[in-house]
Write a structure and sequence with these properties.
Elements lengths: L5 H14 L1 H22 L5 E2 L2 E2 H33 L2 H6 L4 H29 L8 H24 L3 H18 L11 H8 L2 H13 L6 H25 L1
């Protein structure tokens, strides 16, 4: 059950973000800037993909992977360290706060961080000359993506019992999605079985939906539904694992 006290958790995370914002902002600039330089100006110069130039093809993919990485790491790494090393998570868990409120506060905070990272890339993309058609659905897809990967971060942080295994989870789950889920190229180019597997992943639907919206093709209802289902299931799973840890 989610009560209004989720706001306490969320507000605490926002205070932390405010105090470390310059460091957060600078760190979020590095990876997308390198991706845009390498794939937009470098490898992608003169290349055409999906009916447009490669820079405009790759920007939605970079936004998708950055939203995923930022929201997952902001929640997963932080909670895992708090739980296993600093033991500060216990203060939350013994507080008169429902598991739903705790998870919702953490996930919302991760969503805000992921959204900021996506906005940074959008700003850089326009500076690089990308022409993208933006509307409200574009930001709904980003927020939904940040929400579901922040919830996945809670699940991972609560079920993985060492920092090394958290790194392994990122290596075997997050990293492959970053490069294969329609971010830099279409999964249709992969072998048929692998392509079907890739198309079942949430980040693939984020890339597809953002790219379609950026190209003015409108919302993809199937991708929106898939992201909504993933977000609901992962949020429920996060609440269940927090209840078990308690």
């Amino acid at each position: 059950m989610i009560e209004m006290d989720f706001y306490t958790v969320f507000w605490r995370e926002m205070i932390v973000l405010k105090r470390t914002f310059y460091k957060f902002f600078a760190s979020r600039l590095v990876s997308p800037l390198l991706y845009l330089v390498a794939f937009g100006w470098g490898l992608g110069r003169g290349m055409r993909m999906d009916g447009g130039n490669y820079l405009e093809f790759v920007v939605p993919g970079i936004i998708a992977l950055s939203a995923m990485n930022t929201s997952f790491n902001a929640v997963g790494i932080s909670l895992n360290i708090s739980r296993l090393y600093y033991k500060t998570l216990e203060e939350y868990l013994i507080a008169p706060l429902s598991a739903g409120s705790f998870v919702f506060g953490q996930v919302l905070a991760g969503t805000v961080r992921g959204l900021i990272a996506a906005l940074i890339i959008l700003g850089l993309a326009f500076l690089f000359g990308a022409k993208l058609a933006l509307n409200a659905w574009f930001f709904v897809i980003i927020i939904l993506t940040c929400f579901l990967f922040a919830a996945l971060g809670v699940v991972a942080a609560m079920t993985i019992n060492s920092h090394e295994d958290m790194a392994n989870f990122s290596t075997f789950v997050i990293l492959p999605m970053s490069f294969l889920s329609g971010t830099f190229f279409l999964p249709d180019r992969l072998p048929l079985g692998v392509a079907y597997l890739i198309k079942a992943l949430p980040l693939t639907h984020t890339s597809y939906a953002l790219r379609a919206l950026a190209q003015g093709q409108g919302l993809l209802p199937v991708s929106l539904a898939v992201l909504g289902v993933y977000a609901a299931l992962l949020f429920i799973a996060a609440v269940v694992v927090v209840q078990k840890v308690r």
